[in-house]
Amino acid sequence: MFTRFILFFSILLIAVSSSSAQEGSSSPYSFLGIGAKGFRGTVENRSMGGLGMFSDSIHLNLKNPAAYADLELTAFTAGATSNSVELQTNSSSDDIDYFTFDYLAIGLPFNNFGVGFGVKPRSAVGYELEERTATRISRFEGRGGFNTVYFSAGFEPFENFRLGATANYNFGDLENKAVIFRDQVQYASREINFTDISGFSFETGVFYDLKLSEKLTLKTSGRYETGSSLNVNRRRELATIQLGQNETEVVVNQIEIEPAETEIELPELYAFGLGLGQERKWFVGLEYENYTAGDFSNLGFNFGTEVIQKKANVLRLGGFYIPRYNDPVSYFKRIVYRAGIRYEESGLEYKGEDINEFGISFGLGLPAGRVFTNANLGVEYFERGTTSNNLIQENFISVFLSFSFNDKWFIKSKYN
């Protein structure tokens, strides 16, 4: 068991390092605030429209910490996504592809409670934009993001009622660059903002199941995430530059602005879910999420009168179906078939337009034998943004994959 812990911690350290380095977005809207949303749930969640209100004895639900109370086996999981995106305006379109690491997590069951820890991305920045007028060319680039290392615990104080809590440590860095070329001016001006973000946030969750009949169970859930303050350390570089060969930026003169410390406010989250299902057969659930307005205005470099942070609502509908989970002959009858749909307000208004998302998803849970317990595969098509008011609409096709491993770690030996 000790060897397995060492192996997991080694993988976790590698994952934290790689997630800090990766650019998990290629969205022009990641220019605004702290970037585009990073973690959207496990593959199982995302395949059901992002639904976070279902839990079982072998899968990790990283959206609601109360789910750790349902674990009966040690669970280890990791997930990643391949994204193909069409960027569409009123007059043109472009295609980009990128890959993201989504999460690495482990859950450990004990008597009537369970714990878990892992790493997941919170937001991601990655964009290259250009704006031209008759007298000026402006170029904007950004990269980075910030991640979350978390510890969760869930327990069952009485039958069919589970409570859980999560402590998150959020950390990361952003780099935003703007270069402006003016007509009949020899040198361009460049501004680079380096932003380090860190701080804690906390979550609580609850599940309650009500048995309606021998087969039917009504499931309810609730989640709350604190609207925490995160520490921000900003420094700026101002320079005049000229372009060398291959558009290499050659600095003519440069000054560094004294670092400034400030804070940003994460939005609060309230979520409620209601669902109906039959154990190991089928489930359908509806979940509502409400976010208060975050406050990222202290970042300064990408906020102006055209950018407004406001309250946001999210609605998710999803579920799964298993023809026969223990069929001894047919592999296809043991597959979990998942589907979902979601409508998601981002809480961001830009140039008078709400930047919202609509998506539909499908997925499979594939029993995988001895090497690992199961593989989960999903695909989602979703749209973000709008072409109104000279903005950009993003059309995503995301394919996500995870592998889950289950084992019994804490078994007393029968022999000395």
Could you describe the 3D structure shown?
The chain has 416 residues and is mainly β. Helices cover 6% and strands 62% of the residues. It contains two helices and 18 strands. It has helices at residues 2-21, 43-46, and strands at residues 36-37, 74-88, 93-110, 113-132, 136-158, 161-182, 188-211, 216-225, 229-243, 249-265, 269-278, 282-291, 307-309, 312-321, 336-350, 353-367, 374-385, 393-407. It has a 14-stranded antiparallel β-barrel. The longest helix is centred in the N-terminal third of the chain and has 20 residues, at 2-21. Residues 19-23 have low confidence and may be disordered.
Give a nutshell description of this structure.
The chain has 416 residues and is mostly beta strands.
Q: Main attributes?
A:
single chain, about 425 residues, 14-stranded antiparallel β-barrel, elongated
Helices and strands in order:
Elements: H1 2-21, E1 36-37, H2 43-46, E2 74-88, E3 93-110, E4 113-132, E5 136-158, E6 161-182, E7 188-211, E8 216-225, E9 229-243, E10 249-265, E11 269-278, E12 282-291, E13 307-309, E14 312-321, E15 336-350, E16 353-367, E17 374-385, E18 393-407
Antiparallel strand pairs: 1-4, 2-3, 2-18, 3-4, 4-5, 5-6, 6-7, 7-8, 7-9, 8-11, 9-10, 11-12, 12-14, 13-15, 14-15, 15-16, 16-17, 17-18
